[in-house]
Amino acid sequence: MVPVKSFMVPVEKFVTVDRDTDVRSAATAMRDHNIGSLFVTRDKEIIGIVTDTDVVRRLVAVGADPSKTAVEQIMSAPIVTVEENKTLLDANDVMAREHLRHLGVTRAGKLVGMLSVRDLVVFLTNLPRQ
Length: 130
Description:
Oligomer: single chain
CATH architecture: Roll
CATH topology: CBS-domain
Order of helices and strands: EEHEEHHEHEEH
CATH superfamily: CBS-domain
Strand order of the largest sheet: 1-7-6-5
Largest sheet: 4 strands, mixed
Structural class: alpha/beta
Number of strands: 7
Mean pLDDT: 94
């Protein structure tokens, strides 16, 4: 089976926002980059992830003001991870068990990438058909 590292987005390509960024600006960045998540940083260190689901469930559903709410208030932390040498099936199992659409990828415990449900769909779409 294919290892996670073959389909992950490397950390160098992450789109990040500072923890004090307001949710409206974060949502605009997600829209502009056509992505469903942003990594949240504090002094350039990744401390969490904010997803489109976080925006809906933790901001919109409770009637909070996106211009006055910092991403740190609605982000998911800590980031659930899988080691880069695990298989895509292993990653899928973690995502299903934890009800996640984004999974951090680590090497020796250090965050090196991210795998999304979209990445799994691309993999499955390209499998040979019998």
